[in-house]
Structure formats: structure tokens, C-alpha cells
Amino acid sequence: MERRTFKTFGLLATATLVTALSACQNKDTKTTETKKTESTTAAVSPTDKIVFVNSDSLLTKYEYFKDLKVKFEGKTKNAQADMQAKGQAFQREVAQYQQSAATLSADQRKSTEERLARKQQELQTYQQNAGGALQNEQAVENEKLYDKVADYLKGYAKQKGYKMVLTYSKGNSAILFADESLDVTSEVIKGLNAEYSKK
Q1: Which InterPro entries match (predicted)?
Q2: How many domains does one find in the chain?
Q3: At what angle do helices 9-21 and 63-100 cross, to 10 degrees?
Q4: Residue 183, Cβ neighbours under 10 Å: how many?
Q5: Which of 107, 128, 129, 148 has a CA between 20 and 30 Å from the CA of residue 170?
């Protein structure tokens, strides 16, 4: 079975989460410039108005995402094992036919070959459907992940008085520099995990 049929959940969730973390943008046309401060350990003040969250850390420490990752790794592994078992059973059937082909009549060979060709086609269709079903389920879960993070950040930004929550991800970020005092990742993770543990 081609491994690409079942996409890694982490890549999908990372793209979704990056979008989610940008969901708290205010439509205010004013721009705020972040300034470098002497102390990188100072608490974030609501007057800063713009903060950022490290999405890499969020993905590794948010319990809801970790549970989803385990869930889909298990489903992917089961789907791959199922396809491998079906593929091996089909290969055994083909090998049996090849061994007995010389003793069969022309009509029997033709009939068996047609049956095996149909079975191979059914196996390929099953593989595609299984992969598609898993991807659809992942898309639904990604939407839930997006909603959870976006809803939490909207409330969090409103409560703190922030006008914008940016996202930072190593190798995939529009932020070239930000003072560490603007990093609210730990606080956001703590809040998201507390919210998740109540359910």
C-alpha cells in the first residue's frame, strides 16, 4: 500500500493550527510596531496589544492535539495492517493460480484470471476509499481543533485587551523578530489544557 494514501495527521494539524492562531486579528486599520525591550522576562502588558504564540510548542503540549495524534496514528496503523493482510491474501491466491494454471483448461484459466483481475480492482478501490475516509475524518477533527483554538484565543485576546495574536513556527513564520516578553505560548497552552481537562 502506498504510504501517501494515509497522510500524517501532524502536517494537516500544523497547517490548520497556523490558520487558527491568526483568527484573532482585529479589523482595526492601525498598525502596532513591536519594540525590543531590555528585559525578556517581563510580563506582557495589555498596552502591547500584539502578542504571539509558538505553534510548534502548542502542538507538542496541547493535550487535545496529543490525544488526536495518538488516535489517528492508531487508525492509520490499523488501516495499513488491514490493507497489508488483504494484499497478502490476494498474492497467495495469485500464487495458487500460477501453480495450478498448467492443469486448468483454457476456459478455467480465463475465468480465474478475470476473477483475479476483478479482485485486484476491488482491492485498489477499497484502499482508495479507506484512505479517503480517514482523510475526511481527519479534516473533521482538524476543523474541531481550529474551532477550539480560535474560540479560546478570541476570548483570551478580549480578556487581555490584545488587538492581535500572531503565530510563530520555525521555518514557516512571518515574524522575523519578536521580543520574548510578547510570547504568551505557555499561558495559552495552560488555558487550553485546563479547558480540555474539564471535558
Answers
A1: Chaperone_Skp, Skp_dom_sf
A2: 1
A3: 150
A4: 18
A5: 148
